[in-house]
Every structure is written in C-alpha cells, then in structure tokens.
Amino acid sequence: MKDLSASEAIGYLDYCPETGVFIWKKRQATGRGWNTRYAGHIAGSVPRDGYRYIVINESRYLAHRLAWLIIHGRWPLSEIDHINRIRSDNRICNLREATHAENLRNAPKRLKGLPKGAYWSKKDRSWYSSIWQNGKKKRIGTFATPELAGEAFMNEARKIYGEFASSGE
After folding, report:
1. Is the pTM of this model over 0.90?
2. What is the edge-to-edge ordering of all strands in the sheet holding 126-133?
3. Average pLDDT of the chain, as a whole number
4. For the chain, what percentages of helix, strand and coil (3-state, to nearest 5) are there?
5. How far apart are the first and last CA of the chain?
6. Bridge partners of 137?
7. Cα angle, residue 32 at apex, residues 29 and 33 outer, rounded to 5°
8. CATH number for the domain running over 109-164
9. For residues 42 and 31, is the Cβ–Cβ distance under 8 A?
C-alpha cells in the first residue's frame, strides 16, 4: 500500500472535522462515470469491525488515519484512539494519537455486568483488582464487592494512565 500524501488525500476527499464525514470530490475526466456515481457521496464503508474504510487507488485506508493526515498534514506516528470508543466517529476532536498500550487502556470492559478491573479469585474467594504498569502486573488489593474492586482500579488507572484511563462504560 502506497502512503498517500496529505495533498493527494485532499485532492480526492472533502473532510469535515466537525462531523467526521468524508465526501468524494469530483475528479478530472476518468472516462468511467466516476463523477456521476461517486462525487458528492459519502466515501467508504463500515464493515462489522465498526471502522470506516476508504479505498483510494486500490489501497484501503482507515478513515480515522486519513482524518489525521488531512488535518495535521502527516500520518500518525503510531495508532489513533477514538476517545469515545465509537469506531466510526471520526470527528477530529474524538481522535488522538496513542501508543498501542494507551489505545488498549481506553478499551471497553470485557466482562459484561462487572466493573472494569474487577476480578474474582477462586483461590482467595474474593474480589480483587490489578493493573499493568511498566510492563508488570500490579495487584491493587482485595475487596468485598466487584464495585469496590472496580473503583480501586479506576483510581489507580487515573494516576497511572491519565487521560487514557477508561471505566469501559
């Protein structure tokens, strides 16, 4: 896949940073009915994974990475995190550069009905919470309820992860 330049992306797409919507621009005569079929329409599609993909010159791009390119004039250095965790919400105010670890910290909780960071220990027959810090798992404590374990997790996450701390709600 050839990396598009910002000026090339702008040549193909209009991007609205307030709505996160991409619209195909008219192209010079292509001879294949491009303008009547696509120009002025929303670009890309959203498959089951929830991200919007846009195909340009036979290469498939994630829309949130194209938004970053168009607004900042460069490709993101690593990953892009959707702050509100809605994968198709490509408003620039909802996007931020993140390392892979930071992006994972903003992931939703995995077990429905339990607070993020709350786990049951069969061995101890109690609730506990733990958190990853500098590549090591740190046990926060043991608690009477999953809610207390989740609350302790969130307090620790805010200290360690800052703006990337997420309750997973």
Report:
1. no
2. 119-121, 126-133, 136-143
3. 86
4. 30, 25, 45
5. 36
6. 132
7. 80
8. 3.30.730.10
9. no
